[in-house]
Specification:
With 302 residues, this protein is of the alpha/beta class. 43% of the residues lie in helices and 15% in strands. It has helices at residues 20-31, 53-64, 79-93, 116-144, 155-159, 165-185, 210-215, 222-228, 266-271, 273-276, 288-301; strands spanning 11-14, 35-39, 69-72, 98-101, 147-152, 190-197, 238-242, 245-249, 252-253, 283-284. Strand 7 (238-242) and strand 8 (245-249) form a beta hairpin.
């Protein structure tokens, strides 16, 4: 029999939790005993505007079900506001155990038509916003010797998607940040993971048909995120979730070849390309230094 995950006594900050995926995460964690900070700027899909209504509505849902929650309308790109949110959370609930960086916007255009202002805004909300929120809770989690942090990446960041250069770059950056922070936080029992969801939400309802939206119900993502919030969560993993299917995404490196110094030419690389790109026996590399060690070993054994 599977043990029920319980978050009694824990406190979670969830950004972008006034609707969509964030709201579902908040409701489920609250049902399992966590106190929730429902952060939401209350803007539109492209990030314009603001309102406290969305966050307050989710807080009301949680409290009506017997849970504990507080609303917060901080802009995740505003360092002062983010630090104040964290301070208010500690003052109100005494600790922070979980941070889910879920806030995001879309400003999709092909790269030819993409204005740099829209590049910067998407990077700012997704990547810089997650960095600011994570930085704000980091030392607190280190001092208490525990933390679970979730970054929201995307298949667009892992594999690419037409018209989403800004969004894809931000989401890939979150993967890179996760890899480093997972290493730095491990000794303090801070686990940092990514969720890569495909779900029918306000952000995707204009680009998906009704059948696809139904199949990609956002409720399917919640179990994966709640697991990553738990004490049994792994560290430095990308969990892909869509339509009830859950997979692990990894970046791997092929075995490749080692060229003698006299043979290190672009022509030689072209000639050996098939072997360099051969994915048989490809394997993940756990850190940059491990990657360097692998290359040095290949040279020594050549």
């Amino acid at each position: 029999m599977q043990e029920t995950l319980n978050f009694a006594g824990q406190v979670a900050i969830i950004t972008g939790a006034g609707g969509g995926l964030g709201r579902l995460y908040a409701l489920d964690l609250a049902k399992r005993g966590a106190s929730i900070v429902v952060n939401d700027l209350g803007g539109t899909v492209d990030g314009s505007g603001s309102s406290t209504t969305a966050a307050e509505s989710v807080v009301a849902e949680i409290e009506a079900a017997g849970g504990k929650a507080m609303a917060n309308a901080a802009d995740v790109t505003d360092e002062v506001a983010v630090n104040a949110m964290v301070a208010d959370t500690i003052k109100t609930f005494g600790r922070i155990d979980i941070l889910i960086n879920n806030a995001g916007i879309l400003r999709d255009k092909s790269f030819t038509k993409l204005e740099i202002t829209n590049w910067n805004k998407v990077i700012d909300v997704h990547l810089n916003g997650a960095a600011l929120c994570t930085k704000a809770v980091w030392n607190h989690m280190k001092e208490q010797g525990y933390g679970r942090i979730i970054m929201t990446t995307s298949p667009s960041g892992i594999y690419g998607n037409f018209g989403q250069a800004n969004y894809g770059a931000a989401k890939a950056g979150l993967w890179g940040m996760m890899n480093t922070l997972g290493l730095e936080g491990a000794k303090s029992n801070i686990h940092v993971n990514c969720i890569a969801p495909s779900a029918g939400t306000r952000m995707t309802e204009t680009i998906m048909d009704a059948g696809t939206l139904k199949m990609l119900a956002p409720e399917n993502i919640t179990p994966a995120v709640v697991f990553l919030c738990s004490e049994t969560a792994p560290n430095r993993r990308v969990l892909v979730a869509a339509a009830g299917t859950y997979t692990l995404a990894e970046m791997v490196e092929t075995q490749g070849i080692h060229l003698a110094e006299a043979e290190r030419t672009p022509e030689a690389i072209a000639a050996h390309w098939e072997k360099i790109a051969d994915r048989e026996n490809a394997e993940p590399v756990n850190s940059a230094m491990e990657g360097v060690a692998k290359l040095v070993k290949a040279m020594v054994n050549a």
